[in-house]
Amino acid sequence: MNRSKSTEGFFLLDAVISLFVVSVIIIEIFVFVLNIGGAAVKTTRQINESINLRNRSAVELFEY
Predict the structure, then answer these.
(1) What is the pTM of this model?
(2) How far is CA 64 from CA 3, 19, 30, 50, 61, in A?
């Protein structure tokens, strides 16, 4: 198949653009997963703090 120079350049540009789009999508997915992980850690920390507060108040009740 004998292609001219212009279509060859277009195919190269198309490949570069698609590679860029795929890399951006992968980065977006990675950032999304990191955000979910950060939120999970934050909520776990909040749950632990509320449990600690409940335990502390229960101990104070028994001390009186």
Answers:
(1) 0.47
(2) 90, 68, 52, 22, 6
